Amino acid sequence: MAALGRVLVCGLGVSGAAAARVLLARGDTVLLADAGTPSVRAELEEAGATWLGAVTECPDDVDLVVTSPGWRPDSPLLRSAARAGVEVVGEPELAWRLRLPLADGRPAPWYAVTGTNGKTTTVTMLEALLLAGGRRAVAAGNVGRPLVEVVTATDPDGTPTFDAFAVELSSFQLHWSSSLAPAAAAVLNVADDHVDWHGSAEAYRDAKATVLALTPVAVADAGDPVAAALVREHPHPVTVTLDEPQPGQLGVRSGALVDRAFAASPAGDVLVESSALQVSGPHNTVNALVAAALARVAGVGAEAIGRGLAGFRGGAHRNVLVASVDGVDWVDDSKATNPHAAGASLAAYPRVVWVAGGLLKGADVDPLVAAVGARLAGVVLLGRDREVLARSLARHAPTVPRIVVPSGDDADVAGVTAVTGEAVMTQVVRAAARLAQPGDTVLLAPAAASMDVFTDYAHRGRAFADAVRQLH
């Protein structure tokens, strides 16, 4: 590809730093902007980049701006670039433009997944299915390695390392994408999230829909009304269902996952028995069906898909059984960072002591609490917005026992003045143990972000697991 000219990289997180490295290796002129002073600055300056720092105006001689997903569209620097007529793209869009050709002259295809919840599970499932089908595949994008890094990776002989990409795309990344044309794309679900970044629920939905604009095959969960509506008018829509699949669908028949969208036989191909899946819950069955649909577009056979799904064990902090103690299962789904994700997780278990709370980011929890109240054996609340959940529980599940654990900058926890996430979680787990009875599941599915008390959702999940292990 021809030189891009002078490129301003905004934000030097993982994706921004990767973009800068690839651009420098290509010989492009790279300018760097960041509100902080990241540790990678010295490395990139040594490689030839120019550090601008916390600038708010786009330099006159910039040809392209590459922004990190954390930068909002109303950031002064990005607004300055727009006023100047300079194109702003995200790292996935840059990666799409820098793809290397395979032996047949065409770049490796992308199989893309977006949605409010389930993206990472589905994309890592898809990676497993592509590998089972003999492809040199990798999961990348909003999960794993940055796209710009993997699409330009080569073996020692100069040939591209990968011939297929399982791509996770967030709404932030899609907002800055204009020419992505994956070989197939899926929208798993759309629920209110990141409205503060996009400005409205409609803008958030429209960002998700961007992934479908140029793809020849559009996949969605028929059970999610917004996602299903997005693919309905597509020239080649494919939906998945937990019911008996109709022609053009993948679904569940007599306890088995069945493909009636890509199979040669009208009756469809049996892919795998549901009981063979090692990830629990109806939402994960949907994820498996979507991953299978995308793999079918990639030419992966039914046998390889079944083998790949049966061998998939899921990622950390996504419905992971931590331990069983005195007849109670303790499950870490710290990745359930919004009400929609928590609802899907709670639906997987019949009787739950629910550990919830954190930063709700303005999300309405009433529909979730009303829907799950009947299966709650108890609730333990933590985090900054715990009282919002407490009030909702009082309205919709008033008879459910609940314990509120002081968190963050509140009063001491167990006499510890400087309250740590670990100290908070120790008290949470002890409280949950008092509520749980044999046969119950204690489920960490917070329905909220974690950054009030913890570094991130992974820190929250580790603290939960460590506290559970102390019960033995």
Strand count = 20
Low-pLDDT stretches: 409-418
Straight-line distance between termini: 59 Å
CATH superfamily of the largest domain: Mur-like, catalytic domain
The CATH topology assignment of the largest domain is UDP-N-acetylmuramoyl-L-alanine:D-glutamate ligase
Question: What does the model show?
Answer:
- Helix content is 33%, strand content 19%.
- The chain has 472 residues and is of the alpha/beta class.
- Strand 7, helix 6 and strand 8 form a beta-alpha-beta unit.
- The N and C termini lie far apart (59 Å).
Task: Offer a quick outline of the entry.
With 472 residues, this protein is of the alpha/beta class. It folds into three domains: 6-94, NAD(P)-binding Rossmann-like Domain (Rossmann fold, 3-Layer(aba) Sandwich); 100-311, Mur-like, catalytic domain (UDP-N-acetylmuramoyl-L-alanine:D-glutamate ligase); 320-469, Mur ligase, C-terminal domain (Protein-Tyrosine Phosphatase, Chain A). Helices cover 33% and strands 19% of the residues.
